[in-house]
Design brief:
There is one protein chain. The protein has 296 residues and is mainly α. The protein has one domain: Orthogonal Bundle (MetI-like fold), CATH 1.10.3720.10. The protein has 13 helices and no strands. Helix 3 packs across helix 8. The longest helix is centred in the N-terminal third of the chain and has 42 residues. It is globular, with a radius of gyration of 25 Å.
Length: 296
């Protein structure tokens, strides 16, 4: 009996110590994430503004107004265009870089570091750089002029602003490249050797060995890239000011909540945005179960 009491006392002590060590994270999660999340849900049912401390219950009226607002659906359409353009570009480019950096060539560790460095650069510096590259008289347009092509003013053009922002996003794919590299290094060499014995080339190796083996990581990167693309905010704010069909959902929510001051309305917009993103996540998860290969 004494032994059981001591064991129980020890377990309780370990549990208390565990909660104490986890307390900073738990407090941060409740204060910085859980409370703002549910408070924004409450605000979405009120007429909260930045100019008034009092709020009145509006129910789902804001949701009805938003769903019937053509400006909101225009913002959704512009966001979807950006997502459908930027996500495939980023995934293809990062996988291509990962394949190159996985090759056994001298100095590959140096090249891996060089391709990851852009992810550490502040967004303000990145914006200044891409204004120099994709401006009306930028480096890209100067190169195009050598071939007799007149380039657009990328970030001040209704047709090219979204592609310009998508190309700009390819600058910071270093983190995605690292994740792809970790998957590529786990692919068994024996599989490539078996394909070579059967007379298969690089095309067969890629589509029948590499792609199936990295498919779980591919879907993971697809999921995270899609969520990040829906949340884009800083780039359109600094590069276009939300003009030229770049009034994406994140930027529209910000301007509605803090520039116009309609926080209740903006909160409702954010929850509708959450629903849209959740639908995309569900589709990706269903596709992952069907197409991803897990070597269990």
């Amino acid at each position: 009996m004494k032994w059981k009491k001591k064991a129980g006392k020890k377990k309780r002590k370990e549990a208390v110590m565990g909660y104490l060590f986890a307390a900073p994270w738990l407090i941060g999660f409740v204060v910085l994430m859980a409370f703002p999340l549910f408070y924004s849900l409450y605000l979405s049912f009120t007429n909260a503004t930045t100019t008034s401390m009092s709020t009145q219950w509006r129910g789902i009226s804001y949701y009805k107004t938003i769903l019937a607002d053509p400006v909101f659906w225009g913002s959704v359409g512009n966001t979807l265009k950006f997502v459908l353009l930027s996500v495939p570009l980023n995934l293809l480019f990062s996988l291509y870089l990962a394949l190159l950096l996985n090759a056994k060539v001298p100095g590959r560790k140096l090249f891996r570091a060089l391709y990851y460095i852009p992810t550490l650069v502040t967004i303000v510096a990145v914006v200044y750089l891409w204004r120099q590259l994709l401006g009306s008289s930028g480096v890209i347009n100067q190169v195009l002029s050598w071939f007799g092509i007149t380039g657009p003013d990328w970030f001040h053009d209704y047709t090219w602003a979204t592609p310009g922002l998508a190309i700009m996003g390819m600058w910071s794919v270093g983190g995605t490249v690292v994740i792809f590299l970790s998957a590529l290094t786990d692919v068994p060499v024996e599989l490539y050797e078996a394909v070579s014995v059967d007379g298969g080339g690089w095309f067969t190796k890629f589509f029948h060995v590499t792609l199936p083996m990295v498919s779980p990581i591919l879907f993971y990167n697809l999921l995270t890239a899609t969520i990040a693309a829906f949340q884009i905010f800083v780039q359109p704010m600094l590069m276009t000011g939300g003009d030229y069909n770049t009034n994406y959902l994140g930027y529209s929510i910000y301007t509605t909540g803090f520039t116009v001051g309609r926080q209740g309305y903006a909160s409702a917009m954010s929850w509708i945005m959450l629903t849209i993103v959740g639908a995309f996540v569900l589709v990706i998860q269903l596709a992952r179960k069907k197409w991803a290969f897990y070597n269990d």
